[in-house]
Each structure stands twice: as C-alpha cells, then as structure tokens.
C-alpha cells in the first residue's frame, strides 16, 4: 500500500463510523476523484480494505495500520467485527 505523498494537506473528514453505521456505499466498489487521496483511520477494531485495480489486493487495517486510498482507484471495505473508523481526505 502506498503512503500519502509529500505536500498533500487534509481538507475534509467523515463522521466516525461504527459496525452499525458504516454506509453501504463504502462496502461496494467506489473511488475518490482525481487528485483526492484519503486515509482510513481505525480507532478501534479491524477493517478489511480491498483495492480492486489494477489487481485485487487486501489489507487488514487497525489502529496501528491505517489505509491509504489513491485517487481514482476502485476500492471497498469489509467489516471484520466491531470497528470504529473515519476517513480523512487530502489534496
């Protein structure tokens, strides 16, 4: 998984989601806009982050291992038990 590039700055953040409140659209293939990076920050528990292109790759995210979302790359998440997390957007 790539790291956030140097020079990007945060500009928005989602609400904190839980196992019960995670939006369905995050569980299905979606992507960020051109130039928009994101960081999935896990507060408690674990979350499976699946990058869908150019090949499928899976990562288990935890409080010590956030996920980085590249611009325009299709991805989805899968709940793995109780979890609390938010997504922070960068450009």
Detailed description of the structure:
Strands 1, 2, 3, 4, 5 and 6 form a 6-stranded antiparallel sheet that branches. This protein starts with 9 loop residues before the first strand and ends with a strand. The protein has strands at residues 10-13, 17-18, 37-51, 57-61, 67-69, 75-90. With 91 residues, the protein is mainly β. The mean pLDDT is 97.
User: How large is the radius of gyration?
Assistant: 12 Å
Q: Number of helix segments?
A: 0
Q: What is the CA–CA distance across the termini?
A: 18 Å
Would you identify the regions where 5 or more consecutive residues have pLDDT less than 50? none
Assign an overall shape. Answer: globular
Largest sheet properties: 6 strands, antiparallel
Strand content: over 45%
Chain oligomer state = single chain
User: What is the average per-residue confidence, as pLDDT, rounded to a whole number?
Assistant: 97
Helix content: under 10%
Write the layout of secondary structure elements.
Blueprint lengths: L9 E4 L3 E2 L18 E15 L5 E5 L5 E3 L5 E16 L1
Antiparallel strand pairs: 1-6, 2-6, 3-4, 3-5, 3-6
Task: List its traits.
single chain; mainly beta; six-stranded antiparallel sheet; globular
Quickly describe the structure.
The chain has 91 residues and is mostly beta strands. The chain has no helices and 6 strands.
